[in-house]
Amino acid sequence: MRIAITGAGGRLGKALRAAASARGHDAVAWGRAELDVRDAAAARQAVAAARPAWVINCAAMTNVDECEGARDEALRVNGAAVAALGAAAQHVRARLCQVSTDYVFAGAPDRAPYREGDDVGPVNQYGTAKLAGERAAMRWGGALVARVALLYGDPDRPAFIEKVFERARAGERIQAAADMAGSPTFAPAAANAILALCEQEREGVWHVAGAGGATRHAQAVVAAEAVRPGARVLVDAVAAEALKLPARRPPDARLDTTKLVGEAGVALPPWEETVRAWAALWLERASPARRT
Known about the structure:
The protein contains 11 helices and 12 strands. By secondary structure, it is an alpha/beta fold. Helix 1 links the parallel strand 1 (about 1-5) and strand 2 (about 25-30).
């Protein structure tokens, strides 16, 4: 099956390229330099030339804090561009898979974990723009929306988990919110799950996230211990407001993956398991011997 991937230089895009190849698919991958998804004409031309069965859109403005100060640009990249990609896919009878986020939810602690049909209500501009992208995608027949959460697993693009690895390995103190929870998700595992949904020709909204979920503080403890036994003493539990982040975050945006497991037969490993396995690979890559 031929698959076109936008945003192929990002954390999930890179994982999708690798997973598609491993699963025997013919992947056409466009990074930002090859395709600016804001250019509708360029998107239409690129998709027409590739003629894929699926267009998986990973291109996005993902810096949550930057989105707060660039509302129009966030809506343009994360929302309007999706409509153009959907039109481009429809033109060649391809289907669109739009990658979305847990941040479309308000994150009320008494509501999580969220199921696909639960009410949305983003609390920041990033979530608002990504929700606009979901709605743009769903206007096209057969579209698939894959909501992912707290992706990690790219050594060249450190996320929260890798930043904890780095600080714990260096013996530095780590502050992590005890009142903010989510579902850490290993990008390669998410990529394989998304491809499985495409292979099954699924449509609609699906949650693709690591099994379970935890506060950022609990995540940091597991990650720190994975690279340095005893490093839990370096992790300080703080309130989210103490971190003084420009954008609000949903307090508890854990995702329920019952539908993914029960209907598609796809299960991502527990987040603790993949964090520990990734830590071992990360340490091997970061060792001085590997760098000489």
